[in-house]
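[recover] target loaded
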């Protein structure tokens, strides 16, 4: 009899714990209402930039990039449209997206100013070899890494959103560590993080930022450069990959793109956004270093 009571008590405790976990999971997801104007959209990348009004409890009025989990809504909206949408937020703001997009005013669609779209690079095309300055103040060019597979991305050190620059830099750190496990591959690869905030991200700032992702080991800079360039050359390099960015309220509003360059300096692959898998990119880098794999491109627009 005592055993049966103990068994029932144990089951009740387990059910209480499970119920508590389920309630906790539900409470970690919050919903807010967003209103604002669409500035730009990347349909294949699944995100758009919105000049949003104040979102009480979540975010002040500003322009920023949002992942979108409403394919039909993303397809229908155009730059200039005012919209209303649900913002789903998880994990204290580290993960968020838009759902249930509704166009509330499309009268500004035709008059909305959109700059002429520059040519975006395709696999096999050469990347603009703009002058760069790394975290040690040394001048370099992407051409200096000829013969190596180069993984390149765009970040800025003051980025406050965990799922944007910090996430990409953390994934680059993991790739860097994995490549270091095989010295022969390590010697045939290189990582480059380009700052979208050259006025603030000086060499000392980039050095400090880079050390945080290299776990304090400055020798890692021999394999991973954190670089800046002039505003004009940054625009030229970013435009080559369809990357959009601009400064607002001391922050850089930007889309995201990660690029793999073949050892001959041409584009090998492009991953838009921030949802690529580290294992997939790592495998592509290793294959490129070994001269394997077919050229392919993940559309950026």
């Amino acid at each position: 009899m005592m055993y049966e009571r103990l068994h029932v008590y144990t089951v009740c405790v387990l059910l209480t714990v499970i119920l508590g976990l389920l309630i906790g999971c539900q409470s970690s997801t919050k919903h807010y209402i967003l209103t604002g104007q669409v500035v730009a959209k990347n349909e294949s990348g699944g995100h758009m930039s919105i000049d949003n009004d104040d979102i009480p409890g979540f975010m002040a009025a500003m322009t920023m990039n949002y992942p979108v989990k409403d394919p039909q809504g993303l397809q229908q909206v155009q730059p200039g449209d005012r919209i209303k949408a649900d913002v789903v937020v998880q994990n204290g703001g580290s993960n968020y997206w838009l759902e249930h997009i509704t166009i509330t005013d499309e009268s500004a669609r035709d008059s909305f100013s959109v700059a002429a779209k520059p040519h975006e690079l395709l696999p096999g095309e050469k990347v603009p070899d703009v002058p760069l300055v790394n975290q040690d103040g040394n001048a370099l060019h992407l051409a200096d890494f000829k013969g190596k597979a180069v993984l390149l991305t765009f970040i800025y050190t003051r980025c406050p959103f965990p799922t944007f620059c910090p996430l990409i830099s953390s994934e680059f750190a993991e790739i860097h560590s994995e490549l270091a496990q095989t010295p022969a591959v390590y010697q045939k690869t290189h990582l480059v993080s380009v700052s979208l905030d050259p006025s603030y991200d000086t060499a000392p700032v980039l050095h400090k930022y880079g050390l945080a992702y290299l776990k304090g080991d400055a020798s890692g800079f021999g394999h991973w450069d954190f670089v800046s360039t002039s505003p004009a050359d940054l625009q030229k390099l970013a435009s080559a990959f369809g990357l959009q960015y601009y400064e607002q309220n001391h922050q850089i509003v930007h889309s995201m793109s990660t690029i793999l360059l073949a050892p001959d300096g041409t584009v090998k692959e492009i991953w838009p956004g921030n949802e690529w898998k580290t294992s997939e990119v790592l495998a592509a880098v290793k294959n490129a270093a070994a001269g394997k794999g077919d050229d392919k491109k993940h559309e950026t627009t």
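[recover] notes: The two ends are 69 Å apart (CA to CA).
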